[in-house]
Design a protein that fits this description.
The protein contains two helices and 22 strands. With 362 residues, the protein is mainly beta.
């Protein structure tokens, strides 16, 4: 594998540049998926209120999923907390429905952030690192898998909660996600919330990894930036990534069927391995970029380390292109370099972005 440190090199490109890149999109990327996974996604209600609590007078869960036949689970929760006041807990409870078998939960990675910053999703992504722990549920047992203090709420300009957790599991279970004042006051039976905003969801998908291995011949890309390789990502309902990017999502609200996406594919893990081959007669380097669309985009990237950047719209003074890696020099005549990285669209900005790979003479 060829992993790399992610630098913070950002610049500004025009709306015309983005549109030109859009016009020069390369062949769609094809992804494979891992069928042993479940993605537990919690974004409804997007704005949490006291009546949504698991220990309210009518106790509610904000997500509940029955899981079977899976060995890996990714939980991604992202919520606004402006309408809350004081301290709370974000809590995840699991139940073993078997009367004979135990369930083992092994935590691989976890990231959490609670702040008044709109960059909160990025803080959780950058915290999403190896944090090993385990929990075993005996037959018919219930326990808390995750409890996180949430002291920062009620800021009218924005208060946020973001959580990533990846676990290995070995038997069927039920998982429920709560916001509450006291986990000890959450009863055994809690209730579904009415679904009054169909632009946000809580529920699950049967995949969270989108895997791509691709070789690019950079000789053709030396001509000009317009000959760069441009790939649209993270907005399948506008067709940028091709059909293989779509992940069927199942809202947990009763009476509703499956949908083909969560908005922007928030939280999904795009695992890329690109090999850049140099068949020209000149040494080259490859510059790797994420370019935001004109409505903004929050990108997370992981390789040797984790980094995130909110790439804003054309009308902002903020940067909208991230040079997240530049390769070492690739010698001519068929030599190559391979890079490995994971991309994630974090929960801010719901439109897609563009991956650009530009060849420059070394």
């Amino acid at each position: 594998m060829a992993k790399f440190d992610i630098p913070g090199n950002y610049d500004k490109v025009s709306n015309a540049y983005f549109n030109d890149a859009w016009d020069h999109l390369s062949t769609h990327i094809t992804y494979s998926k891992n069928n042993n996974e479940i993605f537990v996604y919690s974004n409804y209600p997007e704005y949490l209120e006291n009546s949504h609590r698991g220990d309210a007078s009518t106790p509610h869960y904000i997500n509940k999923v029955d899981v079977s036949g899976k060995t890996k689970m990714l939980i991604y929760a992202t919520h606004h907390l402006e309408y809350l006041s004081g301290s709370y807990y974000f809590a995840i409870r699991v139940f073993n429905p078997s009367s004979t078998k135990s369930v083992q939960f092994t935590k691989a990675r976890e990231g959490f952030s609670n702040s008044n910053s709109w960059f909160n999703p990025g803080y959780a992504w950058e915290d999403f690192n190896n944090k090993y722990d385990s929990l075993t549920l005996g037959p018919n047992e219930t326990n808390w898998l995750v409890t996180k203090a949430v002291p920062t709420t009620g800021n009218s300009s924005g208060s946020f909660l973001d959580y990533f957790g990846e676990f290995e599991v070995n038997n069927p279970f039920t998982i429920a996600i709560y916001i509450c004042k006291n986990i000890n006051n959450v009863p055994g039976i809690t209730y579904e919330l009415d679904w009054d905003n169909h632009n946000t969801y809580s529920g699950f998908a049967n995949n969270y990894s989108l895997n791509c291995t691709k070789t690019l011949d950079m000789a053709d890309a030396l001509v000009s930036y317009e000959k760069s390789f441009f790939f649209g990502i993270s907005n399948p309902y506008e067709g940028l990534g091709g059909n293989s990017e779509k992940v069927t999502f199942y809202p947990n609200q009763s009476g509703y069927g499956a949908v083909n996406e969560n908005i922007g594919n928030y939280g999904l893990q795009y695992n890329f391995r690109f090999t850049f081959k140099n068949t020209s007669n000149k040494p080259v380097k490859v510059k790797c970029y994420i370019i935001s669309n004109t409505r903004s985009h929050f990108a997370g990237i992981a390789s040797l380390n984790r980094a995130s950047k909110f790439l804003s719209s054309e009308n902002s003074s903020d940067p909208n292109r991230w040079n997240f890696h530049t390769t070492n020099t690739i010698a001519p005549s068929g030599n190559s370099v391979t890079i490995d990285f994971t991309y994630c669209h974090l929960a801010l900005g719901s439109r897609g972005a563009i991956l650009q790979f530009e060849a420059v003479e070394a």
